[in-house]
Amino acid sequence: MGINHRNLNTLTVDTGLTARLRPRVPSGTVLVAESGIRDAGDARRMRVVGADAILVGEALMRSDDPRTLIREMTRVERE
Question: Strand runs (DSSP E) across the chain, as ranges?
Fold first, then answer.
């Protein structure tokens, strides 16, 4: 199940949405936090609040070094 942090009407982003909605997601459901995840710190916060995966787009497109960004974000999983 994906939780999109971007309000598609206003285009504002609320990365706290995953934390607020996680308790409503049935146990055993893979939860994907989507939009507004810019760096490893954001990825870590999503993991802490219960996201199983993240969807990252804009941060990779804007990054001068997407390979390093991916490496940093995937390190969160192993910590």
Answer: 2-4, 32-34, 53-55
Token couple for 1: 């199940």
Degrees to nearest 5, angle at CA 68 with 37 and 40: 30
Q: Considering only CA atoms, which of 49, 31, 37, 42 is closest in space to residue 76?
A: 42
- Centre a 10 Å sphere on the Cβ of residue 32 and count the other Cβ atoms it contains: 15
Per residue in 1-52, pLDDT tens? 999 999 999 999 999 999 999 999 999 999 999 999 999 999 999 999 999 9
Q: How far apart are CA 64 and CA 11, in angstroms?
A: 24
